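Task: sequence design from structure.
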C-alpha cells in the first residue's frame, strides 16, 4: 500500500491515524484507491491488487504440439458442460443478481443455509444474501417451486445480472 501527500506538509499523528483508517477501508471494501482532502492536507492511499493466474495441466495425450500456441479454451478441462446449464439462462425460474456484491447462503458463518438443491421454496422466501457496501440484501424467491440448481458458491463475488440459482 502506498500513501502520498501533496503540498509538502509533514504528517502528524492524527494524519497517520487517518491513513490507517483509509487503509482499513480499502481492505474492507476491496477498493484499490481512496483520496481524501482535509484543509491543506491531501491524502491518496492506494494498493496494488495481486492478480492470480491459474494454469491447468493437460494429460500428455491431450497436450497440443510444442510449436502450436495454446488458446485459453484448450486449457479448459475435458469435462463436458451439462446441456441443462445452457437452458438455465432463459429458464423462467432463473434468479439473477440485482447488484454486485458477495453471495452468502446462510445468515452467518456456520449457520444452516437458507436453501439447498432439492429444497421447496415459496414465493418471497429468502434464498440468499448479497453483501454490498457492508449491507446484507436478502434475495427473495420470485416464485414457488423447487431449487433445481445453485450456480454460485457461498462467499463468492458476484456481478450484476449473474445467474445465481434456478427454481423449477
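Answer:
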Amino acid at each position: 500500500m502506498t500513501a502520498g501527500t501533496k503540498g509538502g506538509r509533514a504528517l502528524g499523528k492524527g494524519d497517520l491515524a487517518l491513513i490507517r483508517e483509509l487503509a482499513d477501508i480499502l481492505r474492507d471494501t476491496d477498493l484499490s484507491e481512496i483520496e481524501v482532502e482535509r484543509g491543506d492536507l491531501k491524502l491518496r492511499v492506494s494498493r496494488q491488487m495481486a492478480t492470480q493466474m491459474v494454469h491447468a495441466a493437460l494429460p500428455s495425450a491431450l497436450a497440443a504440439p510444442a510449436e502450436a500456441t495454446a488458446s485459453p479454451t484448450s486449457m479448459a478441462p475435458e469435462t463436458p458442460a451439462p446441456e441443462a446449464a445452457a437452458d438455465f439462462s432463459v429458464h423462467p425460474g432463473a434468479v439473477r443478481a440485482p447488484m454486485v456484491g458477495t453471495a452468502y447462503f446462510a445468515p452467518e458463518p456456520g449457520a444452516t443455509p437458507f436453501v439447498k438443491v432439492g429444497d421447496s421454496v415459496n414465493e418471497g422466501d429468502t434464498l440468499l444474501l448479497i453483501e454490498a457496501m457492508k449491507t446484507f440484501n436478502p434475495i427473495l424467491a420470485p416464485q414457488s417451486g423447487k431449487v433445481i440448481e445453485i450456480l454460485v458458491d457461498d462467499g463468492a463475488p458476484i456481478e450484476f445480472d449473474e445467474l445465481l440459482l434456478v427454481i423449477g
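Residues 15 and 21 are 10 Å apart (CA to CA).
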